[in-house]
Write a structure and sequence with these properties.
Length: 242
């Protein structure tokens, strides 16, 4: 029987100049800016946490297609952390019956999954990732859309995955419509509101947003560093408890 063990690493030493620590997380998306976002992380020497699902990309394949092996290998070699975002990126809608959850797609397909089936949904991205990089995940996961039920969270724990949400102030807004939420305003809000211990959420490309927010990741990282924040991966601190 698989015994749950969250690999909580020792918290990194905080530099004397740091006013606090924040946790940058990135979920998969259409992948169009994926390389450029990785370059931003390298520029700032920031280690992030990635949550992976097998999503469609703008180049016509999927995020966990073997063609993406060089990208994921690069990130693994650079020392980032990784977790599951489910395989199909469907949404946990409710607990049903005595031992299942309702799992629903964007186009309203639905399945009822027991613990074994849900664990398979969480592990499948890790299997693909390990085949490409030689390493597994960090025993963490994030529910698509942040939609979670008590049973889904319990199912995930039985197969070794601790859920990681994000902080309200850390929501980048990259999924919001550009006309109502201009990029400059979103970034201004983040730089004002993010505080010690917050988990930041960004995506590797958003289909719906016309004014791409991702280039502003450079501004956010630089701005938070200027305010004295350090960046750490989720397994290195207590952020997974959020």
């Amino acid at each position: 029987m698989f015994r749950f063990a969250l690999l909580l690493l020792a918290a990194p030493a905080v530099h004397a100049a740091c006013t606090g620590t924040v946790y940058l997380t990135l979920d998969t998306g259409n992948m169009e800016p994926a390389e450029a976002m990785a370059d931003i992380l390298r520029k700032h020497d920031v280690k992030a946490t990635f949550f992976l699902a097998n999503e469609k990309t703008k180049r016509g394949d999927t995020t966990l297609d073997p063609a993406w092996a060089p990208y994921w290998k690069r990130l693994a070699d650079e020392g980032h952390a990784f977790g599951s975002h489910t395989w199909r990126h469907w949404y946990v809608r409710s607990d049903v019956g005595e031992d299942k959850i309702r799992y629903v797609s964007n186009d309203k397909q639905a399945e009822s999954l027991d613990a074994k089936a849900f664990c398979a949904e969480l592990r499948k991205p890790e299997i693909a990732f390990k085949a490409m990089t030689g390493r597994g995940f960090d025993h963490i996961w994030r529910a698509p859309g942040g939609k979670l039920t008590p049973r889904a969270e319990a199912f995930a724990k039985t197969c070794g995955f601790k859920h990681v949400a994000w902080s309200p102030a850390g929501f980048s807004g990259d999924e919001l419509p550009s006309d109502k939420y201009p990029s400059d305003k979103l970034i201004e809000r983040q730089l004002k509101d993010i505080k010690d211990g917050d988990v930041l959420l960004w995506h590797l490309g958003i289909w719906s947003r016309e004014d791409a927010l991702w280039p502003k990741l450079d501004t956010v990282i630089g701005g938070l560093k200027a305010k004295g924040f350090c960046f750490a991966r989720i397994p290195e601190g207590k952020a997974w408890k959020h």
